[in-house]
Design goal:
Chain A: InterPro entries: MetI-like (IPR000515), MetI-like_sf (IPR035906). The complex is a heterodimer of chains A (about 260) and B (about 300). By secondary structure, chain A is mostly helical. Helix content of chain A is about 80%, strand content about 0%. Chain A is globular and about 75 Å long. The two termini of chain A are about 45 Å apart. Chain B folds into two domains: about 45 residues, no CATH class; about 190 residues, MetI-like (MetI-like fold), CATH 1.10.3720.10. Classes of the chains: A mainly alpha (about 260), B mainly alpha (about 300).
Chain lengths: ~260, ~300
């Protein structure tokens, strides 16, 4: 009995040291920019850097647009498959898991080859085209998480009955999706959305290979050229990931409460 | 043959079935354009000459010293980081589930795992450089306060085993997140039955628990392997193109044809798909087997 407890404590304490040390390290290092004392100078420099503001803002916009596109593609599809094409479900599920199997660098390599300036659809040739490409690329990366979250959410509601009820009241497909289905799976959509945000905000490979000045390439550039600012950036990025995961827990918790009351 | 009663219900049914497919047309178009076709293009490119003819030369050229060693190092790092990730993650999860630890530990540990498993890429590399790099907080502390010079001991973060230490930061939490439900599914009765029959704790783990958990463990191992194998940003932010891992080599190849043969890049990417594909098939097959016990 006590041997079990000793082992348990050994692993937990080992984990705590291993995980907290780098977090402590990056935080402490980020405070050391001014010689001889701790200060938030590195954060001040980073936050005032116009490059930071542009690239970070750019990544935020990309993340939000990815969430919108992802929701527009995933929610109707998952709903329709559950309602009308249950036989296609394993197939669709398999396809949505493919982005976990195919490394992102291979997918973006395919984009560069398929949509280059000498192809039928030269998306990489223009600014707007490249942005469309990276948005759909990020939607692809988010697809496994988004689809699984929404599909789990749909499992909890009676899709067929809700649809029939809405139809008998004269609702169109768009109305059903926007005003019946979406509110019912909102928690799932939000969970997927926060995870997507956390993934997109610091993404590097897609942005670098498509030559976009987003937050990811900016961080790598800072890493190669500055000493203390990268740690401040790492703390900020960790904070964003933490907030996103916290929000997922919050909305899930919140939904459990409303369901319990019913 | 031409009985109207038997054919009539079939025809509209079939038409409705085909109409239903239209509902997932946007999804199909999206997936085709931004996932399937780009990947297919790379796979086909691996078997094509620069003029478009069929060839196996690209695949054959993978057998050069440079590329063979890149695959060897990539596979080795992925295997070792998956192995340690599994072992330590399992120890932590088992400690949390069975170890009589305070109950309040579970929530924060799982939440933290969710955060840490997503804290990969560039910022993760920065965190470790700030901690264990040449002027990192821990390195400096050990040298000035305790008198241990990590560099003199042969430790360098910007090496392959340094990379493994960094990768464990997202491998261990991923293991915890995946294996905890499997551990929760282990019934108390199994342990009681084993101890009534006279089994020691070690015997219970070796003859009962591990065989049950084996598919789940091996499946997660395959997933962690694929996870490390496809990672680019962490290694690139740590040491730039200095690591000659397969994804880093591919990254440099896409940017500037470092291999001096564009077709070889496709073969390199094709090899990556093959390896992560096999690892994921193992994961999926073993997970379905593991779930049989979790009902």
């Amino acid at each position: 009995m006590s041997a079990k407890r000793i082992w348990a404590w050994f692993f937990i304490l080992f984990g705590m040291v291993y995980f907290l040390l780098p977090l402590f390290g990056m935080f402490q290092f980020s405070l050391k920019m001014l010689r001889g004392r701790y200060s938030f100078e590195a954060y001040r420099v980073v936050l005032r850097d116009p490059q930071f503001q542009t690239t970070f803002g750019y990544s935020v916009v990309l993340a939000l647009l990815t969430i919108v596109i992802g929701t527009l593609i995933v929610v109707p599809t998952a709903y329709w498959v559950r309602l009308k094409l249950p036989r296609a479900r394993p197939f669709v599920e398999f396809v949505t898991l493919l982005p976990l199997v195919i490394p992102p660098i291979v997918i973006v390599f395919g984009y560069i080859r398929l949509y280059n300036t000498s192809s039928i659809l030269p998306l990489t040739g223009s600014w707007i085209g490249t942005n469309i490409l990276v948005l759909f690329g990020y939607t692809t990366l988010a697809l496994p998480y988004m689809y699984r979250a929404v599909d789990t959410g749909l499992r909890a509601i009676d899709v067929a009955t809700l649809t029939e009820a809405a139809q008998s009241l004269g609702a169109s497909w768009v109305t059903i999706l926007a005003r019946v289905i979406l509110p019912n799976v909102l928690v799932s959509v939000l969970s997927g959305a926060f995870l997507t945000f956390a993934i997109v905000i610091g993404e590097y490979v897609f942005a670098a290979l498509l030559n976009l000045n987003t937050f990811g390439p900016y961080m790598v550039w800072m890493g190669g050229n500055r000493a203390y600012e990268p740690s401040a950036l790492a703390v900020i990025a960790f904070g964003i990931t933490w907030v996103c995961m916290g929000l997922i827990q919050l909305v899930t918790h919140f939904s459990k409460h409303t369901k319990a009351k019913r | 043959m031409t009985d109207p009663n038997s054919t009539a219900p079939v025809a509209p049914n079939r038409r409705r079935w085909s109409m239903n497919w239209l509902g997932i047309l946007p999804f199909a178009a999206f997936v085709l354009m931004f996932l399937i076709l780009p990947t297919l293009n790379i796979v086909l490119g691996a078997f094509q000459t620069s003029t478009g003819g069929f060839t196996l030369d690209n695949i054959r050229e993978l057998n050069s010293d440079l590329i063979r060693s890149a695959y060897f190092i990539s596979i080795k790092i992925s295997l070792i980081s998956a192995l340690f990730g599994c072992a330590i993650g399992f120890g932590m999860a088992a400690g949390m589930v069975f170890g009589d630890l305070p109950k309040w530990l579970r929530g924060p540990l799982l939440t933290f795992s969710g955060v840490a498993s997503n804290f990969a890429g560039v910022p993760l590399a920065f965190a470790f450089i700030a901690t264990l790099g040449p002027v990192g907080v821990v390195t400096v502390f050990l040298r000035t306060q305790i008198g241990i010079d990590l560099r003199m001991l042969g430790f360098n973060l910007l090496t392959y085993y340094g990379l493994i230490i960094v990768y464990l930061f997202f491998q261990i939490p991923l293991m915890i997140l995946i294996i905890t439900p499997a551990l929760d599914g282990m019934k108390k009765e199994w342990r009681e039955a084993a101890s009534i029959l006279g089994a020691t704790g070690l015997q219970y783990w070796w003859y009962v628990a591990l065989p049950i958990l084996f598919p789940a463990l091996l499946g997660t191992f395959a997933l962690l392997f694929a996870n490390a194998f496809g990672a680019v940003a962490t290694a690139y932010a740590l040491a730039g193109p200095a690591f000659t891992l397969v994804p880093i080599t591919l990254f440099s190849q896409i940017r500037g044809d470092v291999l001096g043969n564009p077709q070889l890049g496709f073969a390199l990417a094709f090899g990556m798909i093959l390896i992560t594909g096999v690892a994921n098939v193992i994961y999926i097959v073993l997970r379905t087997r593991a779930e049989r016990w979790m009902k």
